[in-house]
Automatic annotation (TrEMBL):
Keywords: Endosome, GTP-binding, Hydrolase, Lipoprotein, Nucleotide-binding, Prenylation, Protein transport, Transport. GO terms for molecular function: G protein activity; GTP binding. It is a lipid-anchor. One of its GO terms (biological process) is protein transport. Its EC number is 3.6.5.2. It catalyses: GTP + H2O = GDP + phosphate + H(+). It is an enzyme of class 3 (hydrolase). It comes from Denticeps clupeoides. Residues 184-218 are annotated as: Disordered. This is small monomeric GTPase. Belongs to the small GTPase superfamily. Rab family. Its main location: membrane. NCBIfam families: small_GTP (TIGR00231).
Amino acid sequence: MAGRPVRPNGQSQASKVCQFKLVLLGESAVGKSSLVLRFVKGQFQEFQESTIGAAFLTQTVCLDDTTVKFEIWDTAGQERYHSLAPMYYRGAQAAIVVYDITNAETFGRAKTWVSELQRQASPNIVIALAGNKADLSANRAVEYEEAQAYADDNSLLFMETSAKTAMNVNDVFLAIAKKLPKNEPQAGTGATAAGRGGRGAVDLNQPTQASQSQCCGK
């Protein structure tokens, strides 16, 4: 079901809602849209068309007494869209930088994105590094230890994920949710251009398509 809240610990009701802008960055075809589709809808499509510009979706995560609402910007990975990226990560409280564990070049590109975020994004942004396509570990080109060491050196969250098998997909979003400051409810994060009112099916190929999730009630 689209937009179903993720409940890591089965709590029935959260008393506080915090809203955060999260952006996904990475080379084309590393699986950014597939990760979002898995997280938001619990689905996987073997053949995913490239994102044009960016797609917008929402999903909530319930943590103890807090509901964390993610406003997710899934950006296009093609080089021609790179100049648009600051528009999406500006003001973001969190970012997931994705690479393909079977493609060393995408790991190098991920490092470039991390450096750009560290220079230009919000000073307190929570950055997670996701080594996607872990189901293809037989064709691994980036060692887990190498990526973990890089993440440690740069104070990043790090997990290897598989959008295909769902391995660690919810976990990486949950880890981010736990690390974000939740002292005060967050104001809106400027996603009005994405058409907040949309419900129903999520088309990740359509720019700024919104999927509103429900909070922790049934």
